[in-house]
Design goal:
Helix content is about 30%, strand content about 20%. It is an alpha+beta fold.
């Protein structure tokens, strides 16, 4: 197939703007971000945003800033025309949000665009209308002060772009998140968001950061936030950091800013991870709002068209000051000398994307096995279903007390030497022999010539999770004589709408009254009322995003805990069930269930090799 050479030509202005729009205007939330940042650059103290149909049909941003003179309105929709830089040296010390002069013409090239503005010293306002990149009309208008930008029929002239948009609910949520991120960095200004005629939030000016966050994050998260403020060599980092105990399985509550600009930066994420080192699992994410302030000349914000990425001159200093600030908030090694660490901009920050982070290990009870005096039907499956586990194999116990071995059961191994334990208990049909328990947490097992240690909590989590996954849950529920009430934050109510079907399938009977009061009329058979409330609070504060996350949380909540002694029959029951479980080497959070040493590895440990 032969190619035909085309001549080199300068692209038409409208096509150039549409190409630029592909870099700057990715989706409706990008439009909201660019327009709101323009308002803030114009000195606005009040910004009101309206979004209809996820931003496809209408986006309006109105502010009380100093406005644009009528003679400059055509320049405002001309590419590479800007009031924010004048010469080359300005690029090395950018202090404004929008400075390329691309946002307005790019937006106007893929929509029906109207901008009305009244300059501070003007007698009246003026407007300009642009249809898919071409100026169609302009003239006097009515507006008391500031600027109003209306964007209609976004991407109507580029239908291929519409195909890449998500559902209206998703695009609305992204617009809300974009305005939320900006509002946190400008607590001195007031903001409002209205979607499809419904006011989502209205933030007064001059709020403190924590008060503003309470409009977006659940109370349980906000109450656990600790302020930090650290400065070194002209670099200041401050904000709020969440407790490791409230870590979640998604990273959407890690909010990073550089000189007031929301960014996504791997170096900063790596420094946050180091600040929490040893306190989180690999798949757990903290909640944090972090502001880094540094001289404008030390950061390049001109790396990305949408200005979401930055580049630092002093990477080591950035890394160190962020790490120190996090450690100040969460305890860590605050006040101790800094360990010298030269950061490398990593490809993986260690915050992995698989779902939910580990909840604190919870108490539970172990069923009996055929080794127990409590007999079971011959050939009955162990933990064959979640309901059967609860009904048949879970005798009532005081869940707040450790299990006390029966008179026929040996004492836990940590109280006596291993040699004093009873004869090993082989598991039928396997080469495994149970030897005992260490530290009320780990089961000691011999597998031929290999030594194994099993984490009892992790093993039980995997057993319960797989039982729930195989059963797919059937909605079995235990009714409550008196319904429980929970007051929900708006973000929790939104999470409930997303998770409601999964929660019902697990046995929760729920009714939301007035958009903010949740009535709990029934709970899964494995949870009492108090633990059911605790479970729902965790699920709705961001720790779950799908039914599988709910199963993971339930398995963690129901599983036996660490530091809980097990009678020999209970340990054997767990081992038997674990051996019949698929994917048994790791718990649902991804932690290993067992570790093994063969003779060669043991010899190396004892330096016999």
């Amino acid at each position: 197939m032969s190619a035909i050479r085309s001549s080199i030509q300068v692209l038409p202005a409208g096509l150039k703007n549409q190409i630029a729009a592909g870099e700057v205007v990715e989706r409706p939330a990008s439009v909201v971000k660019e327009l709101v940042e323009n308002s803030l650059d114009a000195g606005a103290t009040r910004v009101d945003v309206t979004v209809d149909q996820g931003g496809r049909s209408l986006i309006v941003v109105q502010d009380d800033g100093w406005g644009v003179p009528s003679e400059e309105l055509p320049l405002a929709v001309t590419r590479h025309a800007t009031s924010k830089i004048r010469e080359f040296s300005d690029l090395s010390a950018i202090s404004s949000f929008g400075f390329r002069g691309e946002a307005l013409p790019s937006i106007a090239s893929v929509s029906r665009f109207r901008m009305t503005s009244r300059a501070q010293d003007a007698d009246e306002a003026y407007f300009i209308e642009v249809g898919n990149g071409e100026i169609e009309d302009q003239g006097p208008a009515a507006l008391a002060a500031g600027t109003r930008v209306e964007v209609r029929e976004l991407f109507s002239a580029t239908p291929a772009r519409l195909k890449f948009l998500k559902t209206e609910t998703t695009e609305n949520k992204r617009c809300q998140e974009s305005l939320m991120r900006i509002s946190l960095a400008h607590a001195d200004a007031g903001f409002s968001l209205t979607q499809n005629g419904r006011e989502m939030f209205r933030l007064p000016p001059d709020q403190d950061l924590k008060a503003r966050l309470q409009s977006f994050w659940p109370p349980a998260v906000c109450h656990g936030l600790t302020p930090f403020d650290t400065e070194r060599d002209g670099y200041r980092v401050h904000g709020l950091a969440g407790s490791p105990a409230t870590a979640q399985g998604r990273g959407d509550r890690i909010l990073l800013y550089v000189n007031g600009r929301p960014v996504q930066d791997k170096l900063m994420l790596s420094a946050v991870r180091q600040g929490y080192k040893g306190m989180l699992l690999a798949r757990e994410y903290p909640q944090i709002v972090l502001f880094l302030e540094l001289p404008a000349r030390d950061v390049d914000v001109n790396v990305h068209p949408a200005k979401q990425e930055v580049r630092f001159i002093e990477e080591k200093l950035v890394f160190s000051v962020i790490r120190s600030g996090i450690m100040q908030a969460v305890g860590g090694l605050s006040g101790s000398p800094e360990r010298p660490e030269m950061p490398v901009r990593p490809a993986d920050t260690g915050f992995a994307s698989p779902p939910v982070g580990g909840s604190p290990v919870s108490t539970g009870s172990m069923p009996a096995s055929r080794h127990s005096q409590r007999s079971m039907p011959a050939g009955a499956p162990k933990f064959s279903s979640y309901r059967e586990y609860q009904a048949e194999y879970n005798p009532p116990r005081d869940l707040d007390l450790p299990i006390t071995p029966s008179a026929s059961s040996p004492a836990p191994m940590h109280d006596e030497p291993l040699s004093a334990a009873p004869e090993p208990s082989p598991l039928s049909g396997t080469n495994l022999e149970y030897l005992g328990q260490v530290a009320d947490t780990y089961l000691v097992i011999r597998q031929g010539r290999t030594l194994m240690l099993m984490d009892q909590h992790a093993a039980h989590e995997r057993v319960l999770f797989e039982a729930m996954r195989q059963e797919r849950t059937r909605g079995d529920s235990q009714p409550l004589a008196v319904p429980l009430e929970m007051r929900l934050h708006p973000s929790e109510a939104e999470a409930l709408r997303e998770l409601e079907q999964g929660l019902r399938s697990m046995g929760f009977v729920l009714h939301l009254e007035g958009g903010e009061t949740l009535l709990i009329r029934g709970v899964p058979p494995t949870l009492d009322a108090g633990r059911a409330r605790e479970y729902l609070a965790s699920a709705l504060d961001g720790q779950a995003s799908c039914i599988e996350d709910l199963w993971i949380m339930m398995s963690c909540k129901t599983a036996i805990k660490a530091n809980q002694s097990l009678a020999r029959d209970e340990a054997l029951a767990l081992l038997e069930a674990w051996l019949e479980t698929p994917d048994r080497e790791f718990c649902p959070h991804g932690r290993p269930v067992v570790v093994r040493w063969n003779p060669g590895e043991l010899e190396r440990l004892f330096k016999r090799k």
